[in-house]
Design brief:
The protein has about 160 residues and is an alpha+beta fold. Helices cover about 35% and strands about 25% of the residues. The protein has a single domain, classed as GAF domain (Beta-Lactamase), CATH 3.30.450. Strands 3-2-1-6-5-4 form a 6-stranded antiparallel sheet, sandwiched between helices. A hairpin with a 2-residue loop joins β1 and β2.
Length: about 160
């Protein structure tokens, strides 16, 4: 199955899973479980939500995670500070990387927006070096957009 076919199928599963449910917390919990179950060669999938100048861990699947990450620090904090998705082939080469799990070596982070306000990130980690491609980035951005479209987003 090609990357495009995989993400078409995954995103259709997400739409079905979220059908009729608008609760943001429930939807992020189910979205992280779906990613962890379906996306090969990952060891963490979940969300961090912005509270002031820090991200706090939200629903996720995988080993226990860093609870708080300062905006501008690590891959997640950089995604929020820059407003841009981060595709990191080797986290050990990323300036300021935070090792929540030393086994994770590649990562993709998608900032989540309500209008023009960033309120969190989708974070996916892998124990395989260079696990994520530009196809994964595009597929996960589409996944995040479906989640945003199907949810009542948190108030500011």
């Amino acid at each position: 199955m090609s990357s495009n076919e995989f993400y078409t199928s995954l995103n259709a599963q997400l739409e079905g899973l979220l059908s009729g449910e608008r609760d943001w917390l429930a939807n992020t919990a189910n979205a992280s479980a779906l990613l962890f179950m379906e996306l090969p060669e990952i060891n963490w999938a979940g969300f961090y939500f912005l509270h002031g100048d820090e991200l706090r861990v939200g629903p996720f699947q995988g080993k226990p995670a860093c609870t708080r990450i300062q905006v501008g620090t690590g891959v997640c904090g950089t995604a929020v500070a820059s407003g841009k998705a981060q595709l990191v082939q080797d986290v050990n080469q990323f300036p300021g990387h935070i090792a929540c799990d030393a086994v994770s070596v590649s990562e993709v982070v998608i900032p989540l927006y309500a209008g023009n306000r960033c309120f969190g990130v989708l974070d996916v980690d892998s124990p395989r070096l260079a696990r994520f491609s530009s196809d994964d980035l595009a597929g996960l951005q589409a996944f995040a957009q479906i989640l945003l479209d199907c949810s009542d987003l948190p108030a500011s």
